[in-house]
Specification:
This protein has 306 residues and is an alpha+beta fold. Helices cover 42% and strands 25% of the residues. It has 8 helices and 12 strands. The chain has a 4-stranded antiparallel sheet with strand order 2-1-4-5, with no helix packed on it. Strands 3, 6, 7 and 8 form a 4-stranded antiparallel sheet that branches. A two-stranded antiparallel ribbon has the order 9-10. A hairpin with a 5-residue loop joins strand 4 (54-57) and strand 5 (63-67). Helix 3 packs antiparallel against helix 6.
Length: 306
């Protein structure tokens, strides 16, 4: 099995496939699961703290993107059993002698690290720091020359401009999160499926085949060739995909309500994709989703205890 990787500074780390959500959205926290392997956790933390340049590679070693302004939040989380990829294994042959395959989820120890990209507030603070330096230089020159110079600090964004930027940030994060897709446990094991708009249309189009009574449907997981899936697998996948897309759309709408109510730039800084929305800004639909999610989580714990 091949894994995706990232290069931080001069060090390359293997990462759990499909775990890297670092991207171009401004300000919201994003994570990547670094496979620890032979690395020491303290060395990983030190390297990430000292280097902001990151290069992302596909599982085939092809560079996908690079950034030099990501902000490491210094909030790593250790997980000793995290899904890092899916491995295909031959499980005999069919009646015609063709190979049959199963898919096994591979688990490993990872360090889940969090990054964010600079926010407008970060840029404002940088501009203020530059302005302070400029004012100090001008004051020094004024003292030497005896010529007074008035310095203005206009051009800072208004609260409404900051809100508009935050809304755009939330919209982008919502779209990317939906597109990142879901991992679903199907008959052959765990498989990951992306959910771009095209993927969603393709999936929902398969509902017509299910309705006709077809028992085997052609589809493919991420990075895998097309194969036949039981209709029950596809029905489950569609159900999970619809829930995933609808929940995140609803969640983003409530985040925007929270943004609308903010009265200061500092309040806006507390709002990001992934934050818990205060109850007063939660829509009735979001409250319903959160209740369902809590019930599913509790059900999973009950099953684990039995």
């Amino acid at each position: 099995m091949k894994n995706e990787s990232i290069k931080v500074g001069d060090k390359i780390y293997n990462i759990a496939n499909n775990s890297c959500s670092l991207n171009d959205m401004s300000g919201y926290p994003a994570t990547v699961a670094i496979i620890i392997g032979s690395n020491r956790i303290e060395d990983i933390h030190k390297n990430l703290s000292e280097n902001s340049a990151i290069v992302k590679y596909s599982a085939d070693g092809v560079e996908e993107w690079r950034r030099d302004n990501l902000v490491y939040t210094g909030k790593p989380t250790f997980d000793f059993s995290f899904p890092v990829g899916i491995e295909q294994e031959q499980a005999g042959t069919d009646e015609e002698g063709n190979p049959k395959y199963t898919y096994k989820e591979i688990m490993d120890s990872v360090l889940i690290v969090e990054y964010r990209t600079p926010t407008i507030q970060d840029e404002i603070m940088a501009q203020r720091t530059q302005m302070k330096g400029l004012n100090a230089n001008i004051s020094h020159l004024s003292t030497i020359t005896g010529v007074g110079v008035e310095v203005t600090t206009s051009g800072q964004p208004t609260l409404e401009e900051l809100k508009e930027a935050k809304r755009a940030e939330v919209n982008a994060a919502c779209g990317q999160t939906i597109c990142n897709g879901i991992t679903v446990e199907l008959f052959a094991g765990f498989e990951h499926f992306s959910l771009s708009q095209t993927d969603q249309l393709n999936l929902f189009g398969l509902q017509a085949q299910i309705a006709t009574g077809v028992t085997q449907i052609i589809y493919h997981a991420d990075g895998q060739p097309c194969r036949f899936y039981p209709a029950s697998d596809i029905a489950l996948l569609i159900e999970k995909a619809m829930f995933h897309a609808s929940y995140h759309t609803t969640y983003a709408n409530s985040l925007r309500s929270w943004i609308d109510s903010a009265e200061t730039a500092e309040e806006l800084q507390e709002i990001y994709y992934g934050a818990n929305v205060p109850e007063e800004y939660q829509s009735e639909v979001l409250k319903s989703y959160l209740t369902q999610i809590a019930a599913m989580a509790e059900g999973g714990e009950d099953e684990a205890d039995t």
